Amino acid sequence: MPEKAMDDVMEAASGPHFSGLRLDSLRLSTSSAPSSPSSAKASVAGQIADDSLPEEPKQPFVIGVSGGSASGKTTVCEMIIQRLHDQRVVLVYQDSFYRGLTAEEAERANDYNFDHPDAFDTDQLIECLTKLKSGQSVNIPIYDFKNHRRCHESFRKVNASDVIILEGILVFHDPCVRNLMDMKIFVDTDADVRLARRIRRDTVERGRDVNSVLEQYGKFVKPAFDDFVLPSKKYADVIIPRGGDNHVAIDLIVQHIQTKLGQHDLCKIYPNVFVIQSTFQIRGMHTLVRDRDITTPDFVFYSDRLIRLVVEHGLGNLPFTEKQVVTPTGSVYTGVDFCKKLCGVSIIRSGESMENALRACCKGIKIGKILIHRDGDNGKQLIYQKLPNDISERHVLLLDPVLGTGNSANQAIELLIQKGVPEDRIIFLNLISAPEGIHCVCKRFPSLKIVTSEIDAGLNEEFRVIPGLGEYGDRYFGTDI
Ligand SMILES: Nc1ncnc2c1ncn2[C@@H]1O[C@H](COP(=O)(O)OP(=O)(O)O)[C@@H](O)[C@H]1O
Ligand SMILES: Nc1ccn([C@@H]2O[C@H](COP(=O)(O)O)[C@@H](O)[C@H]2O)c(=O)n1
Ligand SMILES: [Mg+2]
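^ thats the input. predicted complex w/ magnesium ion below
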């Protein structure tokens, strides 16, 4: 199997995006960076015990979606995925595990019962699902409904995810498959609606004619539904009447999944850490800025968009006073007045990339600067600082797009506190944050707020954020070439 072919069908929904905390990559535990990678590793156990985190890496949440053919299983799954936009979700089709007919069988495909459990390679399905559940990536076969065969040249590579959805007519039939599921959903749609949809779909998408669809339905699909699919409905935790039309049921299911998955673990530990609500737009922008091949203008453009969102979110954490205005209709509108005593402080050099967004949101805002030398002296050397004289009376938005070890951040925050800024008046704005940096800053300054757009997996041996986006300042200011 050529490597390229596998890459070509790389699963988009499970791409290189790690917004969840991975305990296996949590290496740093003390409130300052360890002096060596080995000491970092050695401190893992202490950190986990300290923060009451579970010792095992989180297992993905597995959802089974069953129902008759054309009941709307795929449609329901796609709606769930759309609503779970801030989680990594992967959809696995039982259909991918159809055994595939020999040339001889394919000639008499009309006599083949595709609705019987034996038509699927269930052992292979169990192997794939078990691997995915344990966090490994898998190659899933690609099945062609037109010629009833598997594509032997390529696979669909599916990566580890937070949620795995397995859908298919018989996913509740085998007890071993059922036992891998955390939640079972049955899509219940009237038989006549299913048949009508199936005729339309199979003639349009699966290369069939109406007569063959009707013949197959009477001979195999309906009897198998009665013998295997319907009896498996009793295993369902949730039954969705009317499939994708039932928005109430789908919303309730999504809420349940979100509760099960919970917030980011670090937000539970540190209530002052805020990760902005993810959307496909935000994930798309992160995908672009993290791509090492993006051009500098595009990097700047999408970073600016993301930074603007972080800044707006950060401003939303400032205190406000009630204010009433009279509208042109003569009515009174009761709203709020912004907090006026503000200033920005950028940590040179990459923090300066966030100044424009701050200026765009807060007209005429004062912006101070701090330069900290990161190499040598364990990153604690303050080289330069220029801050507004009245900074102690202001709320401070501290700007640095990447929170790595937390050493520079702590140095900057220390300086602000020395200048008389109360800790709870500092909001630290990041684009991406490493869990190690969050621990480091939040342990030392528990009243300070951190607002970030994504929390990454961790730091590597060189204390660089992984997956991260490289040297932010160089990429933003075009000095990386
Ligand atoms: N609520 C719905 N309203 C109209 N058409 C639908 C609805 N749900 C599904 N369909 C259509 O019916 C066909 C079968 O739906 P699909 O979700 O693929 O079913 P399944 O995965 O259960 O076989 C598709 O062509 C789909 O677009
Ligand atoms: N070569 C094949 C394989 C399967 N089928 C039919 O597909 C149905 C399952 O897919 P759904 O998306 O409808 O769940 C199943 O009822 C098989 O009859 C086929 O026609 N040809
Ligand atoms: Mg389907």
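The chain is about 35% helix and 20% strand.
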